[in-house]
Amino acid sequence: MSATAVLSLAGVTLEYPDGEGTLKALDDVSLEVPAGRILSLVGPSGSGKSSLLAVAATLIRPTSGSVTVAGTDTSALDDAGRTTLRRGKVGLIFQQPNLLPSLTALEQLVITDRLRGLRSPASFTRAMELLDLVGLSAAVNKHPHQLSGGQRQRVNIARALMGSPALMLVDEPTAALDHERSESIVKLLVELTREFGFGTVMVTHDTDFVPLTDAVAGMRDGRLRSGLPADFGRVRTE
Ligand SMILES: Nc1ncnc2c1ncn2[C@@H]1O[C@H](COP(=O)(O)OP(=O)(O)O)[C@@H](O)[C@H]1O
Ligand SMILES: [Mg+2]
Question: Which residue, 88, 62, 48, 31, is CA-closest to 203?
């Protein structure tokens, strides 16, 4: 793994029981994602995109192969170690923001620090800064039902930034949004990847916005089809 890769999958296979046999959700997938770069992952429904993210997030153990997140080989970790690694290093953004209805935008972010065992006024300061960064400084005290779909997704993104992740995993973030809002969400994810320097994998159906990202990889039947530029895994020099 190169020094700057925040995610490295090597020969990853994930099998599910399927009747008498097995279904290969991931079939010998190898991939490196460097810090500060964003990869689009595209492919038909059922091709293994969400499975790849779940394995990278250490939510699912692969059947074989290795998963290295921010320099840590996850195969050596027990469940508690994986949870600690995930909370400390991985940001997750799904299609549905899954915000808590009773909490304000600010509280949605602060509670993630509480879950990490952090109780400090600094949590509020950081949450305010991040909400400002995603364009929601006027909405910090609003509840989810008072926000638009695009605003809810921005809260979701700001929340994922609270833990200062090294790796950001994003699954269909724009599936519920119109074209214009989708474009602004993808642009925001690109900007945040640059600014914070984490590595991002974004699963998307919106091939319109793929050119905004650094590279695109296609999946089919659990296999990663080539298409990554040869220099994607290398250090950015500009
Ligand atoms: N928990 C599971 N149990 C059994 N099969 C699963 C499970 N999750 C996903 N699969 C299967 O694995 C394959 C890949 O699924 P998924 O990763 O969700 O694809 P995508 O996100 O590209 O639509 C599909 O055939 C799906 O039915
Ligand atoms: Mg999926």
Answer: 48
Q: Ligand 1: which atom is nearest the Cα of residue 26?
A: 14
Tell me how far the alpha carbon of residue 201 lies from the centroid of ligand 2, in angstroms: 13
Q: What is the pLDDT of residues 152-187, one digit of tens each?
A: 999 999 999 999 999 999 999 998 889 999 999 999
Average pLDDT score, the chain: 93
Ligand 1 pocket: which of 51, 55, 61 to mutate (most atoms <8 Å of CB)? 51
Where do the structural domains in the chain lie, given as residue ranges?
A: 5-99+165-236
Please list, in sequence order, all residues whose beta carbon lies within 8 angstroms of the beta carbon of residue 6, skipping any fewer than 6 positions away: 33, 34, 35, 69, 70, 166, 167, 198, 199
Kindly identify the ligand whose nearest atom is closest to the C-alpha of 45. Answer: 1
5-99+165-236 adopts what CATH topology?
A: Rossmann fold (3.40.50)
Phi, psi of 202 (to 5 degrees): -120, 115
The pick from 12, 42, 50 for probing ligand 1's pocket by mutation, whose C-beta has the most ligand atoms within 8 angstroms, reads 50
> Which pLDDT value is given to residue 235?
43
pTM, 2 dp: 0.93
